[in-house]
Every structure is written in C-alpha cells, then in structure tokens.
Specification:
57% helix; 7 strands; rod-shaped; 17% strand; 7-stranded mixed β-sheet; alpha+beta
Length: 309
C-alpha cells in the first residue's frame, strides 16, 4: 500500500501525487509500487527492500545522496492465547526533498503520524520529522512495557491458586517478547548514537536536544525490559514450583483417602475368610463394621497429626 502525506497549514494532509517535502509511506508494498517509488524519487531499490526482511537489524547507511535508517518498532497482535508482542524493522529513507518509510505491517507509530496525532510535525523539516518518528517508536516501547507490567502483575495474583499450565505459557510468551524488545532496543540505541555524531544526518542545535530525549527514552526502555525480564524469569520458576506443590498436595490427600478406604476392605476380608476356630463375633455384621470405623478414626487421627490429611 502506497500513501503520500504532507504537512499543509500545520495539518497532515494526504496527497494524490508526490511533491517536494512530502512523506511517502509504503506498507507491505508490491513490486510495482517499489519500482514506481524507486524511479520517481531516484532511490536505490535495495534501500526500499531492506526493511521488508523480518530479520533485518537496526542500522544506518548512506549511498548516492540517500540515507537509510532502519529501526525496530514494537508491534502488538492478539491471538487465541492472548496478546503477543514482537518487533518489526521499519526503514526510513531520506532523499534530497522527500522522506520514505517502509514496513511490512502498519504500526501504531505510522497511524499516529497519518492521523495528525503528533504535534509540531512538519514533513518539510526532514531531520526533525525523522527524530519525531524515532521518539514515537521509543515511547511505544515504553507503553507496551507498561502493559506487560500490568499483565504479569495480574498473573502474579493467580499464582498461588493455579493448577494449570495456561498462565505459565502466557508468562513464557511475555518473557520471549521482552527478549525481542531488549535486543531491538539495544540495536536502536547503537543506531541513534551514530546519528548523534552528526556524520550521516545533519543535525541542528535543537535536533541534538530532541535526539538526546530519544536516547533517554530508549535507555529507559532497555532498563525496564531487563528488569521485567528478570522478574518474569523468577516468577516462572515460582509458578512452576507452586503448580508442582499443588499437585503434590492433591496426591498426598488422595493417598491418605486411599489408606482410609482400604481399612474396611481389610477388616471385612478377614471376617469373610473360612478360618477354623472362627473370629470373635463372626456371626454378626456389626462387629466388623464398628471395628472398621474405630480403625479408620485412629488412622485418620494419625494422618492428621502427620499433616497428611
């Protein structure tokens, strides 16, 4: 999908054709769209295709007057097990008079920019527009990390009464998401530090302040992701121990009940044997029954004192 936007009178406006100072957004583009943009804006086709590789890592490159910045953006999807967090590479290409973004899927960062939800953003100010995108990406990481925090806090409350593996699998998904976040954020940090040097992207004084804000947000997100990952790792161990302990308690109770139910069977088996000389009160039903009850009471008291019942 190809869309073209430009800031007109302070508002993000969608255009039908490419003009100077516009922003060209490509979401899972077709080959025809890639060839058209490459020919119209004189962009290296490999720059446009770089972000379409899901395994592409964050980096920065410059060639023939065009600059390619790839950053990992967070993504959230829902499936049958709940919410799944992951990361996607997004390419930002800066040419002589345009900005191009390329991504496999539409992200909330792009939607916010298209809908004009970001203040003081002008597509003509290319460097500042790029930094605003990077700031949005960093803030989105922080938002998703806060959602992950709320999710595992809810799971923690279910920890002591759960006997299922569902919560354990959900924690495993969260831990995997945090690993993705941590790896992507560290790669983004390296790319931002390269931009901060000012050798590839020209930075003005106010741009330095904005880029430093972006770096602060990214480093904060890295620290949060690491802390949450450690907490969830410890919680998973505790979760597995609690589930195992709950099962042991159930098995212990079942074993105790089995012992108590075996007593009448043993007593009545003796009285049912054809033993010469006979047993006391062998001719009546009540003696073995009362004897069974007495033995059950004694065994039950013993099991209770041993905390087995």
């Amino acid at each position: 999908m190809l869309t073209i936007h430009k800031t007109v009178e302070g508002k993000m406006t969608r255009l039908d054709s490419v003009t100077d100072g516009c922003w060209v957004n490509l979401i899972n583009p077709s080959e025809d769209e890639l060839r058209s943009v490459a020919a119209t804006l004189a962009v290296e086709p490999s720059f446009l295709r770089a972000a379409l590789d899901e395994e592409e890592t964050s980096r920065i490159d410059k060639e023939d007057g065009s600059t390619l910045i790839i950053v990992d953006t967070p993504a959230m999807e829902r499936d049958e097990t709940g919410v799944v967090y992951s990361t996607l590479p997004m390419g930002i290409i800066v040419t002589g008079g345009h900005i191009i973004t390329v991504c496999l899927k539409e992200t909330s960062v792009v939607r916010d920019l298209q809908n004009g939800m970001v203040r003081d953003v002008r597509t003509e100010q290319r460097t500042r527009f790029i930094l605003n995108i990077l700031l949005l990406v960093a803030k989105r990481y922080l938002n998703y990390l806060k959602q992950i925090d709320k999710t595992y806090n809810h799971m923690e409350r279910q920890l002591y009464k759960s006997q299922r593996n569902k919560e354990l699998i959900q924690l495993l998904d969260l831990e995997k998401s945090l690993v993705y976040f941590n790896t992507s954020l560290k790669a983004n940090e390296v790319t931002l530090e390269k931009i901060l040097r000012g050798r590839i992207v020209t930075l003005y004084e106010e741009d330095h302040d904005l880029l430093e804000d972006v770096l602060i947000e990214v480093r904060q997100a890295i620290e949060m992701a690491q802390i949450y990952s450690d907490i969830i790792s410890g919680m998973m161990d505790a979760f597995a121990s609690v589930i195992s302990n709950n099962l042991n308690v159930i098995m212990k109770l079942l074993a105790s009940v089995t012992i108590l139910m075996t007593v009448p069977n043993i007593v009545f088996s003796f009285y049912g044997m054809n033993i010469s000389g006979g047993l006391p009160f062998a001719g009546s039903f009540w003696p073995p029954l009362l004897l069974s009850i007495a033995i059950i009471v004694v065994v039950g008291i013993i099991l209770k004192k041993k905390d087995l019942l």
